């Protein structure tokens, strides 16, 4: 699928591969084990993200990989020129779904009761009463040779037209969402290893509370371009404070890189949530998962229309 020997593999790309192989990746990146919950919380609060290996066993990793591949194929069938919806050769699993989520897929629902994520997210929020926002994530294809601008996934409310999915607003203009305890966590699961070449996410450590303007691609120093979360093993999970600066990087490998996710709101934080699971599927979940997704479930009288799209409503 979109292999590395396509026409996009130019001498410049070959040079880029060599450079990334030699330089890409956060120096001293710690990959924790599921037993390191306390240290995971320390790293998360310090850096705005943490990586934990073996969150999924081999069977779960294979199930997730197969499901992701099916969804990728459905989306790519709509985009022959690979324009993407997050930049060329880049796609959002939520932004490519009519429900803005993949919670209707059993592979994503499998992740809801993941004990590693449950333990770490409970520690972050100091409560078990957090809720699911969506089940989404992203993927990039071989041939995504550019960088996605650094960005944050949550921001202060301005008005209903420009920030329809934002909620926090201090009318005194003294506080921003960056001054709060972490309100919104994303857990990205790794159905394949993330390498220096297949589009690892770049994370700028410690920026979750920064009020400094996020640099543009032209302003961004080289060390930030190379501040990528790799190498990281298949079956792992990257748990992120979505306020921290992050962005996509080149996939100059011969494989698709996917990072499906679950997104959680703190018990005290809410923004608009779009229904992503039928009532019938909701009733198959564990009692704990049902409580967590209670704001994502469609009414039993409603038909949930699912499917791939290039522009989510």
Keywords:
seven-stranded mixed sheet, 14% strand, 313 residues, alpha+beta, 9 strands, single chain, two-stranded antiparallel sheet
Describe it for me?
With 313 residues, this protein is an alpha+beta fold. The protein is 23% helix and 14% strand. The protein has 8 helices and 9 strands. The strands form 2 sheets. The chain has a 7-stranded mixed beta sheet with strand order 1-2-7-5-9-4-3, with helices on one face. Strands 6-8 form a two-stranded antiparallel ribbon. α2 (37-47) crosses α5 (115-125). It is globular. The mean pLDDT is 96.
Outline the secondary-structure elements.
Blueprint: H1 11-23, E1 31-32, H2 37-47, E2 49-52, H3 58-76, E3 90-92, H4 106-109, H5 115-125, E4 131-140, E5 184-189, E6 202-203, H6 222-225, E7 237-241, E8 246-247, E9 257-265, H7 279-282, H8 287-292
- Biggest sheet character: 7 strands, mixed
Helix fraction by DSSP (H/I, runs of at least 4): 10-25%
Number of helices: 8
Which stretches are poorly predicted, pLDDT < 50 over at least 5 residues? none
């Amino acid at each position: 699928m979109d292999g590395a020997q396509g026409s996009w593999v130019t001498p410049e790309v070959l040079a880029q591969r060599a450079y990334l192989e030699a330089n890409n990746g956060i120096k001293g990146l710690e990959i924790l084990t599921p037993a390191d919950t306390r240290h995971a919380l320390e790293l998360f609060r310090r850096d705005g993200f943490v990586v934990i290996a073996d969150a999924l066993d081999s069977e779960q990793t294979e199930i997730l990989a197969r499901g992701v591949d099916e969804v990728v194929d459905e989306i790519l069938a709509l985009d022959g020129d690979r324009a993407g919806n997050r930049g060329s050769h880049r796609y959002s699993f939520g932004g490519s779904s009519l429900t803005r989520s993949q919670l209707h897929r059993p592979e994503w629902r499998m992740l809801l009761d993941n004990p590693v994520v449950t333990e770490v997210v409970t520690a972050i929020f100091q409560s078990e009463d957090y809720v699911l926002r969506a089940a989404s994530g992203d993927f990039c294809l071989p041939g995504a040779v550019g960088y996605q601008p650094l960005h944050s996934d949550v921001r202060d409310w301005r008005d209903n037209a420009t920030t329809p999915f934002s909620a926090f607003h201090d009318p005194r203009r003294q506080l921003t969402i960056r001054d709060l305890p972490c309100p919104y966590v994303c857990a990205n699961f790794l159905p394949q290893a993330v390498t220096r070449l297949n589009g690892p996410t770049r994370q700028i450590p410690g920026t979750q509370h920064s009020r400094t303007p996020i640099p543009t691609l032209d302003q961004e120093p080289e060390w930030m371009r190379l501040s990528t979360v790799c190498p990281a093993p298949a079956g792992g999970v990257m748990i992120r404070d979505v306020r921290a600066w992050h962005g996509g990087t080149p996939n100059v490998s011969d494989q698709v890189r996917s990072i499906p996710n679950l997104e959680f709101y703190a018990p005290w934080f809410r923004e608009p949530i779009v229904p992503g699971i039928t009532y019938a599927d909701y009733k198959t979940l564990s009692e704990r998962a049902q409580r967590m997704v209670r704001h994502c479930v469609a009414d039993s009288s409603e038909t949930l229309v699912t499917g791939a799209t290039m522009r989510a409503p």
